[in-house]
C-alpha cells in the first residue's frame, strides 16, 4: 500500500476517469432499477391493504346485519311475550287484580 495513493483508503475509486464514469453510470442504472422495484412494491402493498380494508368492511356490514336481525327477533319475542294473546296472560291479569284489590 502506498500511503501517498489517494485511492488507498477508497478501494472503489480508480485513477482512471473513464472507469469512474462507467461506475457512476452503472450506479445510476442500478438506482433507477431499485426505484422501479420500490414503486412496484409500494403499489402491491397499497392494493393488498385496499383488499384487506374492503374485506374488513364487508365483514363489518355482515356482522351489523346479523346483530340487527338478532335484535329484531328479540324485540319481536318480547312483544309477543307481553301481549295478551300469549298463554298465561289471563293468569297475569289475575295476579295484578289481586294486588290492587
Give a summary of the structure in a few sentences.
By secondary structure, the protein is mainly alpha-helical.
Q: Which helices and strands, and how do they pair?
A:
Elements: H1 17-82, H2 89-100
Characterization of this structure:
The structure is a single chain. The protein has about 100 residues and is an all-alpha fold. The chain has helices spanning about 15-80, 90-100. The mean pLDDT is about 75.
Shape: rod-shaped
Class from helix and strand fractions: mainly alpha
In sequence order, what are the helices and strands, one letter per element?
HH
List unreliable stretches of 5+ residues: none
C-alpha termini separation: 117 Å
Mean pLDDT over all positions: 76
Number of helix segments?
Answer: 2
Count of β-strands: 0
Largest sheet: none
User: Portion of residues in helices?
Assistant: over 70%
Alpha carbon gyration radius: 39 Å
Give the percentage of residues in beta strands. under 5%
Amino acid at each position: 500500500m502506498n500511503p501517498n495513493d489517494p485511492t488507498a483508503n477508497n478501494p472503489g475509486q480508480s485513477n482512471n476517469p473513464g472507469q469512474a464514469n462507467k461506475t457512476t453510470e452503472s450506479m445510476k442504472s442500478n438506482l433507477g432499477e431499485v426505484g422501479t422495484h420500490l414503486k412496484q412494491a409500494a403499489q402491491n402493498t397499497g392494493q393488498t391493504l385496499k383488499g384487506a380494508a374492503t374485506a374488513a368492511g364487508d365483514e363489518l356490514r355482515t356482522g351489523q346485519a346479523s346483530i340487527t336481525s338478532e335484535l329484531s327477533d328479540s324485540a319481536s319475542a318480547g312483544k309477543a311475550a307481553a301481549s295478551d294473546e300469549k298463554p298465561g296472560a289471563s293468569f297475569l291479569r289475575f295476579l295484578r287484580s289481586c294486588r290492587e284489590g
